[in-house]
Amino acid sequence: MKTGKIAGRMADQFHLPRDLILGEPIVTVTGRGDLTVENYRGILVYETSRIRLSLKHGQLEILGNALNIDYYTNDDMKISGRIDKIEYGM
Fold first, then answer.
1. pLDDT tens for each residue of 29-47
2. Residue 56, C-beta contacts closer than 8 angstroms, at least 6 positions apart
3. How far apart are alpha carbons 50 and 3 in whole angstroms?
4. Alpha carbon distance 60, 35 (integer Å)
5. What is the chain's mean pLDDT, rounded?
6. What DSSP designation does 27 have?
7. Between β-strands 40-46 and 76-89, what pairing exists: parallel, antiparallel or unpaired?
8. Could you write out the DSSP letters of every residue in 66-82?
């Protein structure tokens, strides 16, 4: 069994947050204009119509218009603009 599956089972069994144990991203969307991402690794693409982020396991792409990274830290970032689509990928 892979380490990720074991860690996932342990997180579930002990009622621990999966984002903390597995480094999974937390994506919070408020309407169509604000998005907060926690547990990202880096910024791969930053354009006004597309922002692509590197995650521990894959990538996250935000598509829209007038997209802007309002702030980012080592832990989280806030994106604003008109968000049309959010895609997870590998």
1. 999 999 999 999 999 999 9
2. 22, 23, 24, 25, 39, 41
3. 33
4. 12
5. 86
6. E
7. unpaired
8. EEEEEEE-SSEEEEEEE
Q: Which residues, 6+ apart, have CB-to-CB distance to 78 below 8 Å? A: 34, 35, 36, 69, 70, 71, 72
In a 13 Å sphere around the CA of 6, the CA atoms on its Cβ side amount to 3
SS3 state of residue 63: strand
Beta-carbon contacts of residue 76 (< 8 Å; ≥ 6 apart): 36, 37, 38, 39, 40
Joined together, the tokens standing for residue 27 give 């994506």
Task: Record the tokens describing residue 35, joined without a space.
Answer: 């998005």
> Quick check: pTM over 0.85?
no
User: Cα-Cα-Cα-Cα dihedral of 46, 55, 78, 85, to 10°?
Assistant: 70
